[in-house]
Amino acid sequence: ETGVTQSPTRLIKTRGQQVTLRCSSQSGHNTVSWYQQALGQGPQFIFQYYREEENGRGNFPPRFSGLQFPNYSSELNVNALELDDSALYLCASSMRGQGSYEQYFGPGTRLTVT
Amino acid sequence: DQQVKQNSPSLSVQEGRISILNCDYTNSMFDYFLWYKKYPAEGPTFLISISSIKDKNEDGRFTVFLNKSAKHLSLHIVPSQPGDSAVYFCAAENQGGKLIFGQGTELSVKP
After folding, report:
1. Is the pLDDT of residue B68 over 80?
2. A71: which strand partners?
């Protein structure tokens, strides 16, 4: 069974630039959620994708957007990067509709905005 | 508005003793609670969960207790081992699959 993978591991961007982060879900899972974890805080929900559609969104501006592909992998896009976007971005996969609430996380992408 | 709170940023325990990590929540509509463990440079690892209709769930050395009237849950680790040293997050599941996390408690188990 393949776990959740994310790429890249880390990257550095300049304020105003755009970034795309990628996630491959655990085999057998059909739902992907994205979280932002700032230093010293717990992860904060950005949005969730199920069947290639956004299925719930947290308190993040529209410049945070995403995609889910037919193979259930996902992308997180952030436009017009701000310094406060510097954080660990976590992707989690789960199997919706099976009565299970557990989400399984990837190792994260460390984004630094300068 | 912090719906899930972990009020102890850190906890230090001797190897072999019990570790008790606490978590409080405000929303009585949460229907599932989870504990995750996180090592540096890794994503959170799922540990154990509990449905809101139960008051206890046990898995090996890990037991989670839920007190709905107090809106409080706790994670007990016994016996504690040095490899348990990590940051522990409690999370509550909101209808629709959104997890709301606490701020985390850093557990240090000393040999």
Report:
1. yes
2. none
